[in-house]
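Box 3.1. Reading complex inputs
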Amino acid sequence: MRTLRFFFFTGIFLYLYVPIGILIVNAFNLNRYGLKWDGFTLKWFSGMLANPGLMEATRHSLVIAVCAATIATAIGCFAAIGFSRYRFAGRRILQGTLMTLMMAPDIILAISLLVLFVAIGVSLGFWSLLLAHITFCLPFTMMTVSARLQGFDPFLLDAARDLGASEGQLLGRVVLPLLQPALLSSWLLSFTLSLDDVIVSSFVTGPAYDVLPLKIFSMVKVGVKPEVNALATLMVVLSLVLVIISQLFLKEREKNGKNQ
Amino acid sequence: MKIMRTKTAVISLVSGWLLLFGVVPILMLLAASFLTQDATGFFRLPFALTSYRQLFLDPGYLEVLLRSVKLAAITTICCLAVGYPFAWFTVRRARKQRLVILILLMIPFWTNSLVRTYAIRMVLGTNGLLNKMLLAAGVIEAPLKLLYTDTAVILGLFYLMLPFMILPLYANLEKLDYRLVEAARDLGAGLMAIFRKVIVPLSIPGIFAGCIMVFVPTMGLFYVAALLGGARQLLIGNLIQQQFLNARNWPLGSATSVILILLMTVMLAGYALVMRRLASRGQRS
Amino acid sequence: MGKISNIITSGLLAVACTALPAFAAEKVYVYNWTEYLPESVLQQFTKETGIEVVYSTYDSNETMYAKLKLIQKDGYDVVFPSTYFVSRMGKEGMLQPLDRAQLPNMKDLDPNLLDKNYDKGNVYSIPYMWGSTGIGVNSEMIPVASITGWQDLWKPEYKGKLLLQDDVREVFHMALKIKGYSSNSTDPKEIEDAYLLLKELMPNVLLFNSDSPRLPYLAGEVSLGMIWNGEAYMAEQENPAIRYVYPKEGANLWVDSYVIPKSARNIKNAHAFINFMMKADVAKTCVEENGYATPVLTALPLLDEAVRTNKTVFPDKEQIAAGEFQTDVGEALAIYQQYWEKLRAGN
């Protein structure tokens, strides 16, 4: 049983990591087609950096990811607080809509937004892309913050109110600081979702605002290109950094939790 | 007074956003699916059932729909078959190890999915790693033709969707009261019996959630089929993408997505039904 | 907690900084077929003019057309449609008339390729390159002599082995030619015949690829199928076993042209780009790197003897005579499209 389990885990992780490993190795491989090891090189990285289109798309992707993550986290946070603190008609319908939006395949969101943008005459570019990205991040940020809110001690709020805090102070001084870890993790999640998105972007953006995943898609469709390997390697490193940040802050939160 | 104002602002912001960018577009999509294709514009009146007739009566399109459902089902089953033991083994580890396993699972999940699909392609190629290893080991004599087949697409989808199965299962199994298992063992139940009669019934919500999380999005992942698949159109997503970004038949593309929405609704309704059943049974016992 | 916030803040700042220079440079947005323009040429253009090229690619006329339809403003500045899409887009008012005053290098073009039916007087378009679609064979796997025409692709022994272009007109060209029809047929009956013939071919098809058809040949995934002459030429440079065959029923001949869409925003830069592309040395590089024929006459003497006499790049008179140039089929394109959809969906 033990060895069986060991082999099971090893097998799965090999399946998950070997392809990525090959990608990274080939990013430094002199051989253009990655069929055999011809020696170490960094020229694919410099080739990638010298490609202005690729760099512009990277810049666009980062701007969109930062804006979408920030706005989606803000709206999602207020929505989550609203849902937990207020009772109102249609609350369940709203929650249901949010859930459905989260479950819906990206392609549905993509084309329904495309139809909307075309119908009301929004030109495809930065704004259409940003609106779309905020929309698909929103359910995730709201869920993350809601989950954290449920773990709250309600007496904290009562205590604050008894001490004379206004509604605004309550939010600003008590609720938001307590929510900080959840906000950070929902920001990071939205950031990755936005940076990872191929499907929605391929429908709702125009030439004026090409983004990285679309560039990568058109490059990998063509075939094996070492510049893509280099780019992919950088992206793997970026996501590693993000995971480490989110883990670090989890640790910090635990420490804080123990101190309290 | 102040509370009222904040409340109204928050609620109207969220519901306005969802209405404008969630509900209204879906309704427009529904309307578009009943319109007529326009050669130079996007769609035009009159309202007609042309697109639905095409989808169900032209043999080609129906085949794509069925093929897509089949492929997504196979992917879901594979993910469940691997994901369930994975989640179970993980839950049974010590806390530290659990965290390590989950992080190892999440790192690829945080990596760009396109890049991962591309990586899979490099492994499966005629001159890819897999063929090279099998040839070297003497398992096969000629390289396997894996790339551009349905198998390649399933392997790719499985690769991308596995965490979506494992995470809900893990969340569910983590809450499972292990004392029930011990009680069953004390009462003399065998391993299989415990699994069938105790563990599986208790993890049904997790199984359902995982299956929905894998099955529905899978059908939309057109780029996986485009990169790994062959000449046949495999997924509903490819059909939709083709209609919107190549053939310019928006009504047909919209109708195809309406079908996908219906499929999803049926699954979510089924999930809700099962959950309610379970809840009421729980209350009775 | 503060440490994390600092990390995030500095990250945001870094992003903001990288975002700023985006507004500085002059740009031209080029939307072209995949693998159809050497990168060195783009770099040379930027070096000479200071204009940055933002380059995107498409894999079929239809995809390009669908994309342009979605864009009202701030679109691509230079696009490369094939002949029949030039006339269609011109008729639908999607193109801007070219300004000859900004295109002095036009004088060097082959008059045989100008003033054609699809764009009388070259109001909207100037030819970029021309070439053919024929058969690609990996001679290590399949004897070249055994493949002489399109008909050979229908042989049952090639089940699940072929590569076809992902392009409706090119694929229908094969079947129409085998049937002895014109590949620009507008007769619904003839198109249906071709469709029925193609339906029989579908079991043989492994994949559709018109991004860069040479790569599946080079990777060993396919050893027989359709290919553009330029792609075959590029493949041959890397693996001499890959050969190009002009099918006896006739190859598909096509011309791709520069146009400036209505939605373009850098019109002056677009003209500068087109004019630059017509320079003799630039056209020479394009031929040598991409393996298609150029209409720039002054480029021909600069070419290496081996390239100039290469039959894959420059077909001889008989090969041209046997082939047929693609022209606009007007309304009939919708019929082609319908059958094409069925082929792609139902095989």
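In summary: The radius of gyration of chain C is 22 Å.
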